[in-house]
Please model this.
Amino acid sequence: MKVTKKDMENVAVLSRLDIPADKEAQYTQQLNDVLEYFDNLSAVNTDDIKPLAHVLPISNVFREDVVKESLDRDLALSNAPLKEDGYFKVPKVLED
Amino acid sequence: MKLFEQPAHVLHDMLVNKEITSLELTEAVLARIDEVEGDVKAYLTITRDVAIAQAKAVDEKIAKGETISFLEGIPGAIKDNICTKGVKTTCASKILQNFVAPYDATVMTKLKAQNPVIIGKANMDEFAMGGSTENSAFQKTGNPWNTECVPGGSSGGSAAAVAAGTAVWALGSDTGGSIRQPASFCGVVGMKPTYGRVSRYGLVAYASSLDQIGPITKDVTDCAHILNIISGRDEMDSTSVNEEVPDFTKALVEDVKGLKVGIPKEYFVKGIDPDVEKTVREAIDKLKELGAEIVEISLPNTDYAISTYYLISPAEAATNLARYDGVSYGERAEDAADLVEMITKTRTQYLGEEVKRRIMIGNYALSAGYYDAYYLKALKVRRLIKEDFDKAFEQVDVIVCPTAPTPAYKIGEKISNPLEMYLQDACTVPLNLAGLPGISVPCGYSSDNMPIGLQIIGKALDEETILRVAYTYEQSQSYHNDRAQLGGN
Amino acid sequence: MSYEAVIGLEIHSELKTNTKIFCGCATTFGAEHNTHVCPVCLGLPGVLPTLNKRVLEFAIKAGLALNCEINKFSKFDRKNYYYPDLPKNWQTSQYDLPICENGYVDITKSNGETKRIRITRIHMEEDAGKLVHSGNTIKDSDTSNVDYNRTGVPLIEIVSEPDMSSPEEARLYMEKVKSILQYIDVSNCKMEEGNLRADLNVSLRPAGSDVLGTRTEMKNINSFKAVEEALTYEIERQEEVLEDGGHIIQETRTWDPDRGITLSMRSKENAHDYRYMPEPDLVPIITTDEEIEAFRKSLPELPDARKARLEEQFGLSAYDAGIITSSREMAEYFDAVIETGADAKLAANWIMGDLSKNLNAESLEISDSPVDAKRLGEMIGLISKGTISSKIAKKVFEEMWKSPDSPEKIVKDKGLVQITDTKAIEEIVDKVIEANQKAVEDYKSGNKKAIGALVGQVMKQSKGKANPQTVNQILAQKLG
Model:
């Protein structure tokens, strides 16, 4: 196995997902399978190749610094799971 | 042909000539929904009353003698990852099951200027992740040609609606084949335009550097018309191309004489269904017969496209979908003691398996220690894949190959094996990686009478040549006039 | 063992643009919560960012003013972490190709020594929203309220090299950066509104060593006083730990200004893994030499150059010129006073003296001073002409603070014109000599200091209006 238990735990934390105990083996196996397949990339020589993040050669796209109308607050809050007095409300934050 | 079976350009003429009203047409489509939607399940939301009101308004306009635009009064479906103000946009995910966008996607603004009739929001794989629409959190869409089969995906609802006659036209989105492959499976036309041709503002992001909205239609003519409507630079999308949009309908000419058509040998190897290979080869012969010059070409890095795509798209998805945390919109899990627990519970409870899997692949590929070996490596190979196409297009005008290695398969057949599902995308993902336009047009049937699609790939921003080849091929046969046998048909 | 502190600062400065960095919402401070929000800054599904051109311009100006090189190819990246004030759960920032790199500023310490503090980089990014806690403190709140007005307000982050070795240097560095940002007018730098805040990194090492120790970080310090106090406390704390044979833990600590101590925050299970990736929704920024030069030309005279000019042109001391040029407003006020023809040294003294004292007492900015530069200049003119004495000028200044009248009018109305008429002064002198025979005798018997008491009496009787020099002359004559 390429993917260790620690890898899975780390990925779960980064993803903010719980991996239920009964799914752990399956998830690990599936992640392992795809990663092993992805290893075919190691056969490609990319020594002098620059990464390609943007496929089209577009640069310098700007917006003028002109104020646009904001959303009405009720509309901004219309999808909020919990709101109060014009605020989005969340459970307490334990600092990390 | 019945009204709901007609392409939009025919219906438009009928409206203009007052042979039909938009209300008659809309009611015919709604009646078709009543008839077959129980089997097809293409829609997540149907806005029946709105549709009727829109149709009536168009009829009044026609009655007053006003001219109407191409899509005016013609019913269509919108993939449910395109934001529609005031109507739910769920992305077929439980986490957005009650989400109503307070704004319209740019394509919706452009469409609405045309006064089309919007029938509703089409089913899809959750967050566009999948190739069979089986990953919808709400329902499995059936292929109108055989409802035991998948319609393809992720725009399976859009393609199935057009094929079933429950929409005349539809919008889909394509990140790795999500327009072309369901079009192929459902025997309709689907185009992924050049990356940047159509604004992505309001398209719920899956993989931002790959996503693109495009039309799914009954024929190439409708495709060109809708592309005219939705294309163009948008100040809300920095990656939209600032190039003048040609009139794509001018490309609808029956002439491929002297055009060089490249056939990439790497697309006809292992895993390809014999029916698909045979049908596509016949289509290529047809193009030759019509005067095109067939050139064998090589796209040597094709084998790496799946790995590249399935590293880059999950990495982008992992960040794009981090926002579904239950804080300011979407569902929220109950009974969490603190914020971190709330977020984790929310995501665990409301995101589907495939979405979670891709988020985890993406975070793995981006995480410290694996970044260079996976994510960065994939970005480099992406350049090589693009350069393959650049070189090929020095030689040829278009590239032709299968859209998908197989016809539509049975619901449930492949879904348990993620890797096998991913490998199905071999013919479609390279275009997204290279940002190129591609179209799928029907080119025949498998021995089980399931449609097969021919993929035509063009140079960046050269949708016109693709449309020309597609139109010429389409007019040389009659597949575009075939309709799925379903319900009373 | 003696230790030396190694300090680096990350200064976050909000830019004074009209709109947010990636959307058209206004940036105005103090608006009703959640009213300056739109789909983009709320991070709703489907939205895309568009870069405010002015943010780039301001960042480039800041880079040039802080002696940086401007990267001709720059891009944005996503910095991924979960926090409820960050709606997308990533911050759009810059990672490997920031807009500016390799700059510096020079600071002048209280002992007169100048030190160069290197700047590693400056990058553009978006600010986060604000959590408003419903309880008294974070810890006793069951819930938090989120206000997204600040989400997407443009920031530049200025990252220094760990070149500072004392809390004073850190404060001076931050003051200098603030001053420069104000000069080039890219930030309001209102620290009380959080326009300017710093993350402080500090570690200790044995004096003379060049090995770096383990550092701690204190985030979001938003006053100069707190910068010095937090660093002073933290250096002492680390010293004690090391002296006791302990180890410093790499961590983020909070500064509690009320108790004057730093506190360990709950330690993280995992160190942050920000998983930076290129922002696919924003395109690269390419800047040409011509554009960079145009920005360079558009910069105003900066504090160091202005200070040198004031020393050279007006003969101000380095200290005075330093204070006058520490803020653009003060330097401009000084220039405006000089423009009235006022004497430069007197102008500097009045600005640093009575004017600053009065402004501080009423917590006013110099731009809001009730006495504008023109009137102060006129008043200084009256001193130079001998119309009023410096002593009377203080009274005139206090009157000017309260009324909009010109200094001439005040002097006239209040009868404060200096008596230079020798005859009038002689009369008073004669009376004083007659009434103070003891002092006269003392003087005559060689106690020359006794003249001071007599001068004082004359000034008193003239209600301060007699010209002190004339008084001295006449007394000396009369007493032989």
